Model the fold of this input.
Amino acid sequence: MDYFVNVTLTGLTQGMIYSAFALALVLIWRSTRIVNFAQGSMAAATTFIALALIQAGQSYWVALVVALASGFVLGAIVERVIIRPVEGGPELNAVIVTLGLFVAIQAGIAIVFGSSFQSFPTPFGVRGFEVGGTTIPLTPTSLYVIGSVLLVMALLVALFRFTRIGLAMRASAFSQEVARLLGVKVGGMLTLGWGLAAVVGSLSGLLIAGGTFVWPAYMDALIVFGFVAAIIGGLDSPVGAIVGGLILGLALSYVSGYAPRGSALVNISALVILIVVLLVRPGGLFSSTTARRA
Amino acid sequence: MSDLHSPASTGTAGKATDEAPVLATAGADAPSAPAETRRSFLPQSTLLRHLLVLAASAVLAVALLELSSPYQNSQLATLTYYAIAAGGLTVLTGMNGQISLGHGALMAAGAYTTALFLDAEEPLPLPLILVVAVVVATAIGALVGVAAARLHGPYLAGATLALAVGLPGLAIYFHDIFGGEQGLRVRAPRAPEAFGSFIEAVSGNSASNTKWLAYVGTICLLITYFFLANLVRSRIGRTWRAVRDQEVAAELAGINLGAWRVLAFVVSAAAAGLAGGVLAIVVRLAAPSGFTLVLSLALLTAIVIGGLGSLLGALLGSALLVFLPPFVTDLGGDLGLDQTEAAQLAPFVYGVVLIVAMIFAPAGFVGTIRLRWMTAKAKRASARAAGANGG
Amino acid sequence: MAEAHGSTAVSATGGTATSTRLLEVEGLTSAYGPVRALDGVSLSAETGKITAVLGANGAGKTTLLRTISGLVRPVSGRVVLDGEDITKAPVESMVSKGMAHVPEGRGVIAELTVDENLRVGSLFRGKVGKDEFDRVYDLFPRIAERKNNAAHTLSGGERQMLVIGRALLAKPRILLLDEPSLGLAPRIVAQIFGLLRQLVDTEGLSVLLVEQNARSALSVADVGVVLNIGRVVVTDSARTLMADEDLRHAYLGF
Done:
């Protein structure tokens, strides 16, 4: 029973990170109809920036803020310089561009920061809380992970629901031409959207790195998990991405926790889940309208 | 077909030269029949023409292999498996419009199969083993293809990305069979006696094992490209292009889009399997680290740079994958990077090339040159026509 | 192209000038590849009037509006709004120059609510008083009821009301409307056109209306411009055009 709770909590914590990453993919997909396969590499880059700061003696929090800010700048630059020329073109071209960016940034990290495994700190402990003399499988770190993802999501909701710029971003995402005719500077909104998405992606990169090791390709699996989570949620829906992330986190945690030598099966399980969802419900689990063509 | 006499046949990349004529047509959709009678000195039949080019290519390949150093022989062996895989991928992506990041994983299937069969007490003959590798990869490709046929663009890219990241996990999970992270050492097959005497007769060189493997790779490459070149010029190739360009019209014409997409995936997977088999014997190792996402992305770079859909382009692009890394690694060393950092310059360049090519020359280098050339030709033709009408 | 201004009495609503061409299009040519959708089109829309551009499918009506508002860049020709050359101005700036374009197919943002749609329309103006929204809701009580519903739940007529209301929140001097009657019941069309007339007469709004439904359009318009395969065939007062039976048969289909 304890074990089950433990596995479940691990799944939820990991799932929160997948949710955040999936949310970053969905934000970009909604505004530009592009899946940003470079999201993982971009997040890895900002994580390495944070690591360099921490190794230079800065606090975790300074590093976190700088990393998120550099994520925003990176996302905005990528949209302006690299994505803009292929926006609205053949979808294969955009896919190939983000893949090129993915491999270029990853190699760039290796050139600048080296390819070796490096440990990344976490600001909180990884030992479970004690309640009435027994240790429960809930750690300060997992609370931090869950809390920070929830905070970011709340901020995003507030931005999109209650601010004028949020409304302009939504209008641009749903209908670029109409938004332009209404005087919305759509180009700026897209850049802003990519920047914000990169912040959220960077956050998930920093969170997944906390307390473990990082290397240039450490986000490879997370791209897949984030993509699968986003697909489960329908790729168009922020709420779907969050729920999809939690579902995937739990599923993978159970595979890892219960299947014999399950940790080696995690990646292939994600593949299986993806294929099943794409074949059975290509519009995602929550599509109420007719499933769009996947 | 006047476009057979492509200017690209002045290419520098070794073996590329001899293959240029026929392969340049592979992705060319331009109807060129009217010009045919005027300029062509090759036979009218596609098959015959391809056979002629095949024979010429074989002769040139032998010359190339015998005139180059042992180190270059091994580079050419590497080129062959990249080119085989890229050839398959360009059929899928260029001709049928499907993207795959899973070809590294399909190559792994071929490589592990080859490794396992070569490890037997009494191994089967090498050609048979390679056939088995192809069959295994094809079977997996068919499975993936069935799922992939319903997907497009980013969905397909994401699904095959998951395949590329997920499948190597199986090698670790079943480590008793596949050797886990360490992978499987491959017992390199010995060259038959006849090979020694053949080399002796041709060039007087000694028939090293490296040379033998380069020959095996070259033979596989020639067979694959001969097969693919005929395929893309056939009704099947035309249907693929129709499925890619005229989805709705093709469906209205009664073409089962899904089935044709699966077929493209299967053909492409077969090539990847063979490539994996050749890789296994050339590298002598089948391990998860050999089939990372970067391999799949490198293949994508090769076909993008060559111009999607062109077999010649795939070959030239593969040459880049072989000859670029040592070049940029040296360059990195000169710039003061250490060994491991400099080794990352090659994937860095792949990425930059993908981005730059998509932004500035989406038709690829071969495609862009071909486009220019065809435009010029059309201009000349219309000028001639205008002249004829005027005078 | 001779410009015959049919309704001779110079409108007083514009105020100062005697000739009050608010929007002028001069020799506009637009092409999609080798196909010329507009071939040297010249016309003008006067202050305080409804100018209807009529013609069959493929006459270039939609391209005309899209070129005026910058969605399509012309090969040659000029677009002048109140003396300012706006041919090369960015699409996003048109609305702040006083020109609101309601595109073909109405252009509601389906995923946003009715109220959010209206708010997007006034975003560029900064803070806009609640009274302005109330005024739009007063003009169109039907969409007021559906204020918080997603726009995709609206009927065709309600959508048309929403986009016109949204355009009004931009406080435009000239409104470009692309086929507002398309797919609407005649009763709704009459209602919407009646309202347009009222806005023009009472508030000095100017309208450039593109319509295939020539009969309804001419019944509300002051001036009609007939377009055929990218060229202006005739420009005259709506009444004169209505009376010209040959022209109606040849180009207007009624």
